[in-house]
Specification:
- It is a single chain.
- The chain has 240 residues and is of the alpha+beta class.
- The protein is built from ten helices and seven strands.
- It is elongated.
- It starts with a strand and ends with a helix.
- Keywords: 2Fe-2S, 3Fe-4S, 4Fe-4S, Iron, Iron-sulfur, Metal-binding, Oxidoreductase, Tricarboxylic acid cycle.
Length: 240
């Protein structure tokens, strides 16, 4: 049997409370499968008290590890619920689920990650009329940079990223590790020379001068992006 403890809140302003659920089924299913199944119950009951409770609010999309929507903190580590198998995740028969802490809470395990997309729009981190501006040896890095899920796991563990509430109004606030991946992709595939020059300045001001290179982001990235290698190449180019 696995005991699954979920930290819940009805809103960002509401107090935190915990509910416990017991699982006695197939342990090869994922946390996402578990949440999906218990929310199907007509009368969902919290196991420690036996009280009827409401369905767990959480976010999901593809359930294939390709969209990043189901990111949450699982046993203290930010992960995708659809990739966290119960048999591998449980510690001594226990699993704790919490929402990502560096994003505004909507309810329960669901957060608002809009700040990620606002940052990409603000700094124009997209590519039009893509042209690969690098040699074939580094094209695999360009491809990998494009696989960023924008899930927020890297921001959750980054010691330099403080979250939108603490960074609001700060023009040069650290944008987080995914900024390096998106900048690398845009810089290496963009055909607009002026935009690439702007990105070089932005990278220096917002990332190079602020990141302390803990590389916790690399270790939790669900897509396995080599963020350290991308960062090293951007740093080298910054000095040229």
């Amino acid at each position: 049997m696995i005991t699954i403890r979920i930290k819940r809140r009805k809103s960002a302003a509401a107090p935190i409370y915990e509910e416990v659920f017991y699982y006695n089924g197939d342990e090869t299913v994922t946390v996402a499968d578990f949440l999906t199944n218990i929310n199907k119950e007509i009368s969902l009951r919290e196991c420690e008290t036996g009280r009827t409770t409401t369905p767990i609010d959480w976010e999901c999309g593809c359930l294939e590890g390709k969209c990043g929507a189901c990111a949450m903190v699982i046993n203290g580590v930010p992960r995708l619920a659809c990739r966290a198998f119960l048999k591998d995740t449980a510690k001594k028969g226990h699993i704790c689920l919490e929402p990502l802490s560096k994003f505004p809470l909507i309810r329960d395990l669901k957060v608002d990650r809009q700040i990620i997309f606002e940052t990409l729009r603000k700094h124009k981190l997209w590519t039009e009329n893509a042209v690969v501006n690098d040699d074939t040896e580094t094209r695999h890095l360009i491809y990998q940079a494009g696989q960023c899920l924008e899930c927020g796991c890297c921001l959750e563990v980054c010691p330099n990223y403080k979250g939108p509430s603490l960074q609001a109004g700060r023009e040069n606030a650290f944008p987080g590790p995914l900024f390096a991946a998106e900048t690398y992709r845009a810089d290496r595939t963009g055909g607009d020379t002026f935009h690439r020059s702007e990105l070089k300045v932005l990278y220096k001001d917002l990332f190079y001068n602020t990141c302390d290179n803990s590389l916790a982001c690399r270790d939790v990235c669900p897509a396995g992006l080599p963020l350290d290698e991308m960062q090293a190449r951007l740093n080298s180019k910054k000095r040229t």
